[in-house]
Amino acid sequence: MAKSLLYPFDAANLLKNKKRIIKSYKSDGKPRIEKKIAFLCGSTANDIKDVCSIFLLDDMISPEFYLSEYGMYWEEAVFGGGVDSFSPDVIYIYTTTRNIEKFFPEPGCSEDEASRFFDEAKNHFFTMWEKLREKHSCPIIQNNFELPRYRLLGNRDAFDHRGGVAFVNRLNAFVSDYAREREGFYINDIAYVSACYGLDKWSDQSAWYMYKYALAIEAIPSLAFNLASIIKSIFGKSKKALSLDLDNTLWGGVVGEDGVENLSLGEETPLAQAYLDFQKYLLKVKNTGVMLTVNSKNDHQNALAGLNHRDSALKPDDFIVIKANWEPKNQNLIETAEKLNIGVDSFVFVDDNPAERHIVEGTLPVAAPEIGEVEDYIRVLDRNNFFETTSLTAEDIGRSEMYKANIQREISQSAFESYDDYLYSLGMTAEIKRFIPEYIRRIAQLTNKSNQFNLTTRRYTVPEIESIAGDMKYIPLYGKLTDRFGDNGVVSVVIGRKEGKALHIDLWIMSCRVLKRDMEFAMLDRLAETASAEGIKEIYGYYLPTQKNSMVKDLFVDFGFLKIDEDDSGNTKWFLKTDGYKKKNRFIDVL
Amino acid sequence: MSQKDIYKRLEDVFEEVFDEKVTLSPETTAEDVEDWDSLSHITLIAAVEDEFKMRFNMKEVSTMKNIGEMAAIISERAKK
Question: How far, rounded to the nearest angstrom, does the alpha carbon of residue A131 sit from its chain's CA centroid?
Answer without folding.
Answer: 26
